[in-house]
Amino acid sequence: MGMSVTISAAAADDQDAAEQILKLQYLCYQSEAELYGDYSIEPLTQSLDSIRAELAAGTVLVARLGGEVVASVRGTVDTDGTARIGKLIVHPRMQRHGLGGRLLDAIEQRLGEGGTAKCFQLFTGHRSEQNLQLYRKHGYAPVKTQRINDRLTVVTLAKDADTRAYVASA
Q: Using an 8 Å Cβ cutoff, are 142 and 155 in contact?
């Protein structure tokens, strides 16, 4: 019988998780860099110290298969109640099995605890069709587009926190 994937918060001082997230992030964002013809994107140039700072400052969830981090997502809640979700990554061999959706649900639940999040917001590139499909499936709708350059337009998507509770119970 195979192992199951478990989702949990990464501790602020979990150096092993920080290192695994950095390596996984580098692997996962290669396809995005290729899609947009830009290998200087922030996820590919982010430092280990920066990931450690994110672990300490926000909510970072990891999905583990045994001891290996196979997926991760990060989030924070602004003072106005906007929960910003970012860097949802799933190891290529684990994609298309629902893990990204499970992580998205888990980070929404975590950030929404105690009513702190009024809405959820995330973004992706306009050509990242799998990401856009996942986000739409989970109730997100485009609220803004920003052209970065000739190759990239960033699409910001959002949904109300109340929608999350409805979607999760439906």
A: yes
Contact by Cβ (8 Å): 51, 17: no
Angle 47-69-90 from CA coordinates, rounded to 5°: 85
- b/e code 90-123 from CB counts within 10 Å (16+ = b): bbeebbeeebbebbbbbbbebbbeeeebebbbbb
Q: Are 144 and 156 in contact (CB under 8 A)?
A: yes
Which among 121, 126, 116 has a CA at the least distance from the CA of 88?
121
Give the three-state DSSP class for 69.
strand
33 neighbors 39 (Cβ within 8 angstroms): yes
- Confidence (pTM): 0.90
For 6-24, what is the mean pLDDT?
95
Which two structure tokens, joined as six digits, stand for 106? 């888990």
169 C-beta neighbours (distance < 10 Å), count: 6
The continuous run of DSSP H or E covering 3 comes out as: none
